[in-house]
Amino acid sequence: MSFLHTDRLKGCGTYESAPFSCKRMNICIFLLLVVIVFVLVFPGSAFSEVRGLWVVRNNIVKPDSIRQLVDFADRNNFNTLFVQIRGRGDAYYKSRFAPGPENYPDISDSFDPLAELIDKAHSRGIEVHAWFNMYLTWSSPESPVDPQHPVNRHPEWFMVSRNGLDTGTASIQSFASSTVEGRYLSPGLESVRLYLSRIISEVTMNYDVDGVHLDYVRYPGRDYDFNVVCRNKFKMRFGIDPIDIVNGNSEIDPDLKILQKWADYRVELIDSNVKDIARRIKLLNKNIKLSAAVKPHPDEAYFEYGQNWAGWLNEGVVDFVVTMSYFPENNDFSKILNYSLKKVDRQKVIGGIALYMMDARKASEQITLTRNMGLLGYCLFSYDTIINNSSYKNGL
Question: At 277, which CATH number?
Answer without folding.
Answer: 3.20.20.80
